[in-house]
Amino acid sequence: MTDGDGVTRYWEPGTTIEWVYQGTGKHADKPNVRPMTVVRDDADGLVAWLAPGTPLLRPVLTDGREMRHAGPVAMFTADRALKLDVWHGTGILKVSPPGKPWSVWYFWGADGTFRGWYVNLEREHVRDWASRRTSTVDHVLDLWINPDRSIEWKDEDELEGAVTAGRFTAAEAEQIVADAHAAIRDIEAWTTPFSDDWQTWSAPAAWRLPVAPTTHQPDLIAEELHSG
C-alpha cells in the first residue's frame, strides 16, 4: 500500500489498527471505530481480526437503541450518539482487497463452525499511517454467501431508504448495486479472497484484546443515564 511519499508500506502482523466507518453529513462526528489486529497485509490486501469482547465505538440512536430501530429512512436522518461498547458476537476476520469497493467478512458460530462470507459494500479504504487507521464509508447494501456458495442480498430496503433520506443520490445507489454485481462475478469465479481458505484460520492464543479507541469521546446516552 503506497503512502503519501509514494513508498509501498504494509502493517506488520500483530499490529493493532483501527478499522473506521466514517460518519457522513450531519453525522460526520459519529464514526464506527473498531480496533482490530492485522493478520496479513500485502499486495493481495489487508486481513484483520475483530476479536470477541473488543472495545469499540459505534453510533446508536440518542436513546441507545440500534440505528435500524428508526426504520429504513429515519435511520439516516435521526440524531445519533456515540456509544462505547464491546463486540458481543463471535470474532470476525475481515479482508479488504485492493482496488475493490467492498470488504469480505468471515463469520463463525459459537462452536467454531464456519457460517459464511459477508460482503460489505463500502468505499475503497484510505489509510492514515501515523494513526494506524484504515477508513472507509459504508454503502449500506450487503451480500451474504452461504458455505454452499449460494448468495443472498441484504439491506436492499435500507439502500432505498438512504436515497429517500438524501444519503445517496439515485445514481450513487445504482453504482452501489453495480458494485454488488461485480462482487457476485468474483464470487461466481471464486477468486481471492473467497478462494483463500481463511475459514480454517484461527487467532493466535497469545493475542491480547486491543484497548478502547481514544480518537472520539462517547456521548452520555439515555440508556447510560437509566442504568445509573
Automatic annotation (TrEMBL):
Keywords: Hydrolase. The keyword Hydrolase applies. Residues 76-190 form the DUF402 domain. The keyword Flavoprotein does not apply. It holds the Pfam family DUF402. This is RNA-binding protein associated with RNAse of E/G family.
